[in-house]
Amino acid sequence: MVAGNWAVLAKKNVWATYSAKAREKVKLGDKIAFYVKGTGNFRAIYRLSGEWYTAPEPIWYDELAAGKIIYKHQVQVELLELGVANYKSLVQTLTFVKDKSQLGIYIQAMGGGPANHGKPVSDADMAIIGEELRRNPSTLEESPPVEETASPADHIVAGTSAQITPQAVLLPWVFQDLEAVGRGVVNPEKYVGNRDPSTVFEDLVFLAFRFLGYNTSRQLGYKRGPGRPGPDGEARSSITDYVIVYDAKQRADAYTLSAADHRALRDYVEEVQSRGDRNVVCMVVGSQFSGEPRALNGVQLVFLPVRSLLELVALKIMNPDIVNGRSLRKLFGPTRLITTKTIDEWAAEHDADRIDLSRLLKVVAKRTTT
Length: 370
Description:
Elements: H1 3-12, E1 14-17, H2 21-25, E2 31-36, E3 41-48, E4 53-54, H3 61-66, E5 73-86, H4 87-90, H5 123-135, H6 178-182, H7 197-211, E6 215-219, E7 233-236, E8 243-249, E9 255-256, H8 259-274, E10 280-286, E11 289-290, E12 301-305, H9 306-318, H10 325-331, E13 336-337, H11 340-349, H12 357-368
Parallel strand pairs: 8-10, 9-11, 10-12, 12-13
Antiparallel strand pairs: 1-5, 2-3, 3-5, 4-5, 6-7, 7-8
């Protein structure tokens, strides 16, 4: 679970899931070792101390952000062990980790959990984790603070950055106005010089791909100089053999793929293929789109709205071990427009934690305009 939800569990002694199947797999008296994403550590072992019930109100970090119940199935738990047990340091002795080269798959709670593909962990493995927790004890006071009633947005005061919590503002400052820049609105107090919106947009898209884990050493676009056509950049996966050739289309209104643009994109792809890259994805990033993408002689063409790109940035922050070039390859696979629904389905398939970005972006906009 993410750190924000771990804080809720530690304070309220409850666990919850959106999956009804978890109720059949974990029952009264069963033990659970909780792994906190982004830390590399198990933090506690709890035992189910009651029967499952329907959650009466939102209490979890992402539920408060969304303003609704996400994890409908809830259960009381009782603390048995509390501390820090590093997963990688224990992995050679844990028998449930069958493939030591694929550590991440055993701690991913696919389909709402529990992890380990929904299979139980042996008493011997649970004892190993418990012993390590006892060797490195911690206290509940060390858990992040939990807001009792307010959502992560409710206690933010516009213009006072000291009161912005890390959980509330997921988007890095550099990306917080990406949608506005995509429409041609550039804040002169943020960017040096009188930068053209299209060049600022290219730079931000370049940084977003790098943030997602791609090697973006080839930034092209305006940096090639005037009169030299070509894509705005290449984003190469460092862990899977493919490259994204992308164009950043800054527009005040919706972008429509013209016949000329389609030919130019096809030429970009053929140029990259001529250098020996066979696995190529062509992508257009823009504020919004009109019409559907069309494949380029067997190479997929993806339309990526800025809002969807921001969704991926937020997902990367919440799920650093899940969102990478390998897992995104499937999302960027077919020719299509990538919508919030598309990303929701991809996140559910990969058991990635989500947040309601629409509410988050309203908070960010309020803060950045003061």
